[in-house]
What we know:
Layout: E1 6-10, H1 14-20, H2 33-46, E2 50-57, H3 65-82, E3 87-92, E4 111-113, E5 118-126, H4 128-132, H5 134-137, E6 159-163, E7 181-185, H6 194-205
Parallel strand pairs: 1-2, 1-6, 2-5, 3-5, 6-7
Antiparallel strand pairs: 3-4
Amino acid sequence: MRIPNHIGIIPDGNRRWATSNGMTKDKGYALGITPGLLLFKQCEKYGINELTFYGFTVDNTKRPSEQKEAFIDACIQSVNLLTKENSEILVIGNTDSLSFPKELLPFTKRRTFGKGGTKVNFLINYGWEWDLNLLKAADKNRKNIKNNIHSNDISRIDLIIRWGGRRRLSGFLPVQSVYSDFYIINDLWPDYKPDHLDEALDWYNKQDITLGG
């Protein structure tokens, strides 16, 4: 079976899960923390080398304050959980903004925990325009666009999996996603189960990967 080197994760549906279960929207974010850890362990077992989690975007910070505080806290907890695993963690996002949690500043350079092994990237206060902004100042004759983006330490993504049924990328790493296969799971992120990843990998194994060739 052909296993992707790098999987992008869009963990959508936390607010919808909360409201459908009689909670306020902000309560849904904490319920997405444990699924992230379970998914990491499953990917580690399968030998997947790199994972990128979509934490929150610059646009997400326009949501009501109680929701903003809740998803920031969930991101901090998620990063801290993975420091207890064999991981190499990197947080990418606009650190000049007050919306970037200061607790995550130490992770803006990749750090190794335990025995290392699985690279885990978190997009925190991320915006695709911010990511590509360095291109404006780059030489027009540049040979490698990837060297001129903020997320240059993140590799090309083979497979993107989005929970929650939405069929859009929502600005997720546009350079690294240029040849990604895109798999949709209709279940909401808090309802994550191992079969979701297994089904996505089985689907990916059947795709014709050409990278434009």
